[in-house]
Amino acid sequence: MGTILKADVKAAMAATFRNPRCSSTNMKPFFKILLVVAVVLLAFKLLPVLLVPVILGIVLTLIVGSVLAAGVAALTFAGLSTFGALAAVTLVTAAVLSPIWMPVLAVIGLVSLCRRRPAVPVAA
Question: How many CB atoms are located within 10 Å of the residue 16 CB?
């Protein structure tokens, strides 16, 4: 009885495949073309269902990208305004302390003018 089952399996396999091994290189050409046509028809039939996640993914990516771009723009604006405020505070501090540091700078300048410098040979 075991040999009858093997013969039945061989007959069933011979209807589709040339060998008992299942691979696309051993398939008969008609069934290979029929399988490709079936897969293409199935892909076209399922195309709207398959495109919904793709379109949702693209929309989600655009939303996340826009939020991240807005965050980067807000951080850039905050950094630039902080830098501007720091520059304004520095200038105000320099203006307020000018009665102190202006005479000090004048004295340092006079000292450097009156100080003797050693003769430095000029490089040719």
Answer: 14
Alpha carbon 20 to chain centroid, angstroms: 49
Give mean pLDDT, residues 65-85: 96
Question: Among 17-21, 49-53, 120-124, whose mean pLDDT is lowest?
Answer: 17-21
Q: Which residue shows structure tokens 């929309």? A: 59
Q: What does the DSSP 8-state code read for residue 119?
A: -
Two tokens, residue 64: 């996340």
Percent of the chain with pLDDT over 70: 77
Q: What is the DSSP letter of 25?
A: G
Location of structure tokens 């060998």: 19
Contact 16/27 with Cβ under 8 angstroms? yes
